[in-house]
Write a structure and sequence with these properties.
Oligomer: heterodimer
Shape of chain B: flat
Largest sheet of chain A: 4 strands, antiparallel
Strand content of chain A: 5-15%
Helix content of chain B: over 70%
Order of helices and strands of chain B: HHHHH
Structural class of chain A: alpha+beta
Shape of chain A: globular
Number of strands of chain B: 0
Number of helices of chain A: 4
């Protein structure tokens, strides 16, 4: 398993060694199986940036995070979660 | 490996600079006689032309193979900007060290009656070019590292 990120028991959250998690991948599937490219076009970033965000390799700016939440029509806290003191899972 | 147009562009630039300047420095530093100023100018002009041609050809190829990414002209999103900023910072540090080394090299060469390398304008300029090239390699290498490993 990549040391930089892991899949939690819920199977839908992806985290990295920082304390930020997101559920973008699950939200895309729940929204008519939205593609990464479609989400990227609506948010204004590249598809590779969406991939990096989903894999926990990039933390988006506040504006991009809000745009993503707006695309799915849910509050920001339901897309991104900050868990202080979370330890890296080996 | 899913690469954005920007990342492919970085690979193109890295390959071009390593191949072309690598050949240049291999010839210059391996030569028996020191390069003259005129020779260096001619070489550098030729290098610029060759690199421009290589970059144009390879960028056309990657643009054709990644039409969607290239449609917006390869516009930078926020991750690209952050990657570039960090990479430029790394390259600046390397270039700063290289210039400091050259300052010491010129001064030491002027003080040393038998320097290893002749402190000629051509040699000095060539070493400065080397410092710039190494800094650019660090720039492109850093971008690739941040794109692959995350930032």
């Amino acid at each position: 398993m990549d040391r930089a990120f892991s899949i939690t028991e819920e199977g839908s959250e992806v985290k990295k060694s920082s304390n930020l998690t997101n559920t973008i991948r699950r939200l895309r599937f729940d929204n008519d199986e939205m593609t990464q490219q479609a989400l990227a076009d609506r948010v204004g970033v590249t598809r590779q940036t969406v991939i990096a965000i989903e894999r926990g390799k990039y933390s988006p700016s506040l504006e991009v995070a809000f745009r993503i939440a707006h695309v799915f029509g849910i509050p920001l806290e339901e897309v991104f979660k900050f868990e202080p003191g979370q330890q890296e899972v080996s | 490996m899913d690469l954005s147009f920007q990342e492919k562009s970085v690979w193109v630039s890295l390959i071009a600079i390593v191949v072309v300047f690598g050949y240049h420095f291999y010839q210059v530093f391996g030569a028996v006689e020191a390069i003259t100023t005129v020779e260096l100018v001619v070489r550098l002009v030729g290098i610029v032309v060759v690199i421009v041609i290589i970059e144009i050809v390879l960028h056309i190829i990657i643009a054709v193979t990644a039409i969607k990414d290239a449609e917006d002209g390869g516009a930078l999103d926020e991750r690209d900007v952050l990657v570039n900023t960090r990479a430029f910072r790394n390259a600046y540090i390397v270039m700063f060290i290289g210039i400091l080394y050259m300052i010491g090299y010129v001064i030491a060469g002027d003080l040393n009656s038998e320097p290893r390398w002749e402190v000629s304008p051509a040699n000095t300029a060539n070493f400065l070019v080397l410092a710039l090239v190494i800094a650019e390699i660090v720039n492109y290498g850093s971008r690739i590292f941040y794109y692959r490993r995350g930032i």
